[in-house]
Amino acid sequence: MKKATPQYQQSSPPQDQPIAASASPDVLLVDMPTKIARILAYLLAPCNSLNRFEAELLGDHCLNSTIAKLTHSYGLEFQRQPEKVPNRWGAPCDVTRYGLPESQRQHARAVLALLSKPAKGRKGVAA
Predict the structure, then answer these.
(1) CATH assignment at residue 65
(2) Beta carbons within 10 angstroms of residue 5's beta carbon
(3) Which one of 23, 25, 63, 114 is CB 3.0 to 4.6 Å from 55, fit for a cystine?
(4) What is the pLDDT of residue 115?
């Protein structure tokens, strides 16, 4: 019996559209080189935000640390909204929902461009 092709291999963004515009976790897992780039690309898409459980789909098991790295190393500021979500057993769990404010989008695109380059070609982005 022939195995089905995984969805992430079936879909890819249109060539004229930036990767963050599609922001599908399947596409980001394939096209973004690092966890931090996947998270930033996802948050750059309009109306996208993440909590720690949703970030698991992008391969991030410690979203708070990724957000801290983006904040302290790259100068990005995030919106933080506390919320309660059900955990694995259905009990409420306190988490933080992270979003990227409109005022940070231009700087975030520059950081994403930097993160998408091979490590040898990277130079810092001014905050």
Answers:
(1) 1.10.10
(2) 8
(3) 63
(4) 87
